[in-house]
């Protein structure tokens, strides 16, 4: 869906350790413990061109790849071409500065086969005197775990202030460590001149499907009422555009919206921060979920666009809507979810972000349990073990009229079809039922 269609092997010597992604699968489930932490660390710097503009270029790459097969080499080149664009999506108008607040954000590159890679970025000002340009440290990984990679970027930034040379042994140690299982910790030894050897503990959250998420980011900017409008649009796979100036706000909020759909997965165009040169993505007739910097608002509104939901994350309001968002979700369930979200909002200050994640996720998972949780009872199993989903019987079994009206629309979505396709292959939960 995006520009970076890449499949550079995460383990050139041991390709069997790289499972192939199926469209719509979630990276955090697909790439489990024991995988490599990351594929690349790259530094993207701004280089002045002859016309006075700055262009982002990769100035450092670890590891360097040797002995790649022709196909892999092309994939790698494609990946390395796409990265700079997403590290500096805000265009080429830069000027050297003496102060700059470092920021963390992430982007997603979708492969031809639907599998996804995530770029975790820290944009910072290199240490030194006088005016200088920010640079971006970007870690490319198949693993979705924002909190963990933010911590790794903290370590990278700390070392960057000493010297680039100190980053290499740390990343090498990380590359040699297996990715921990949910709830487990991996310890990396790292030597820093003048401070001696440090032990860095990296712990993965217990709940793997929430490790790329900060629901608090959404609750701080939008009312529960608006969050439900956005959820309703996402559930029916509409076009969603989010606006904010900060890259970190865009990427956090969009990841959070996508995570509300769990156990379903957004399977369409998904660009948390759209680079300036790809702004015409908003003209797509197909569903998309994209983040755009506020400075491009006029340009976006001028585009010939199909119906879309446009959300201003700075002011916490909806700028453009289809108009029926209020009526998509069954009213009784909608009110239950509102009560639930309001409760978390009121006690926001006493919950840790993990608790908020669990509470919010639970409210949305319950919504799906109440509407489509009986799906497994309507898969008919043949003697050879293959399943067929009985859609009519499944919809008929819903007693509530309003729930049935919603489900009849939801079963037509791509995310429901992909979910059912997986269920038809895995017979485990319904053993013994014919």
Automatic annotation (TrEMBL):
<dbReference type="Pfam" id="PF02141">
    <property type="entry name" value="DENN"/>
</dbReference>
<dbReference type="InterPro" id="IPR001194">
    <property type="entry name" value="cDENN_dom"/>
</dbReference>
<dbReference type="InterPro" id="IPR043153">
    <property type="entry name" value="DENN_C"/>
</dbReference>
<dbReference type="InterPro" id="IPR037516">
    <property type="entry name" value="Tripartite_DENN"/>
</dbReference>
<dbReference type="GO" id="GO:0005654">
    <property type="term" value="C:nucleoplasm"/>
</dbReference>
<keyword id="KW-0344">Guanine-nucleotide releasing factor</keyword>
<dbReference type="Pfam" id="PF03455">
    <property type="entry name" value="dDENN"/>
</dbReference>
<feature type="region of interest" description="Disordered">
    <location>
        <begin position="1"/>
        <end position="25"/>
    </location>
</feature>
<dbReference type="GO" id="GO:0005085">
    <property type="term" value="F:guanyl-nucleotide exchange factor activity"/>
</dbReference>
<dbReference type="GO" id="GO:0005829">
    <property type="term" value="C:cytosol"/>
</dbReference>
<dbReference type="InterPro" id="IPR005113">
    <property type="entry name" value="uDENN_dom"/>
</dbReference>
<dbReference type="InterPro" id="IPR051942">
    <property type="entry name" value="DENN_domain_containing_2"/>
</dbReference>
<feature type="domain" description="UDENN">
    <location>
        <begin position="39"/>
        <end position="430"/>
    </location>
</feature>
<protein>
    <submittedName>
        <fullName>DENN domain-containing protein 2D</fullName>
    </submittedName>
</protein>
<dbReference type="InterPro" id="IPR005112">
    <property type="entry name" value="dDENN_dom"/>
</dbReference>
<dbReference type="Pfam" id="PF03456">
    <property type="entry name" value="uDENN"/>
</dbReference>
């Amino acid at each position: 869906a995006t520009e970076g269609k890449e499949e550079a092997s995460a383990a050139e010597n041991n390709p069997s350790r790289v499972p192939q992604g199926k469209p719509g699968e979630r990276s955090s489930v697909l790439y489990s413990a024991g995988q490599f932490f990351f594929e690349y660390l790259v530094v993207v710097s701004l280089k002045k061109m002859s016309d006075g503009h700055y262009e982002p270029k990769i100035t450092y790459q670890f590891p360097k790849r040797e002995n790649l097969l022709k196909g892999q080499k092309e994939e790698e080149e494609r990946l390395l071409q796409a990265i700079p664009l997403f590290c500096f999506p805000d265009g080429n108008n830069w000027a050297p500065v003496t102060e700059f607040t470092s920021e963390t954000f992430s982007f997603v590159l979708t492969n031809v086969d639907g599998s996804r890679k995530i770029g975790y970025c820290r944009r910072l000002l290199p240490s030194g005197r006088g005016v200088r340009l920010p640079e971006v440290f970007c870690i490319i990984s198949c693993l979705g775990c924002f909190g963990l990679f933010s911590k790794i970027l903290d370590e990278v930034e700390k070392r960057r202030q000493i010297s680039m040379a100190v980053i290499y042994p740390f990343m090498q140690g990380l590359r040699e460590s297996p990715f921990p299982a949910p709830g487990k910790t991996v310890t990396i030894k790292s030597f820093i001149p003048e401070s001696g050897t440090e032990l860095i503990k990296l712990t993965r959250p217990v709940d793997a499907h929430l490790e790329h998420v900060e629901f608090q980011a959404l609750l701080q900017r939008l009312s529960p009422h608006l969050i439900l409008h956005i959820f309703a649009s996402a559930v029916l796979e509409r076009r969603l555009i989010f606006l904010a100036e900060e890259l970190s706000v865009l990427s956090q909020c969009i990841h959070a919206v996508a995570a509300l759909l769990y156990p379903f997965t957004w399977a369409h165009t998904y660009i948390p921060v759209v680079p300036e040169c790809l702004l015409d993505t908003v003209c797509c007739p197909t569903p998309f979920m994209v983040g755009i910097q506020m400075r491009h608002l006029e340009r976006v509104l001028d585009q010939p666009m199909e119906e879309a939901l446009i959300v201003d994350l700075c002011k916490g309001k909806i700028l453009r809507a289809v108009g029926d968002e209020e009526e998509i979700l069954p009213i009784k369930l909608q009110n239950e979810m509102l009560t639930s979200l309001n409760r978390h909002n009121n006690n926001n200050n006493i919950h840790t972000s993990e608790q908020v994640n669990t509470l919010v996720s639970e409210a949305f998972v319950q919504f799906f349990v109440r509407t489509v949780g009986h799906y497994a009872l309507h898969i008919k199993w043949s003697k050879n073990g293959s399943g067929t989903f009985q859609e009519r019987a499944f919809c008929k079994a819903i007693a509530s009229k309003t729930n049935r009206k919603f489900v009849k629309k939801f079963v037509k979505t791509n995310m429901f079809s992909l979910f059912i396709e997986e269920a038809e292959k895995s017979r485990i939960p319904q053993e013994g039922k014919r």
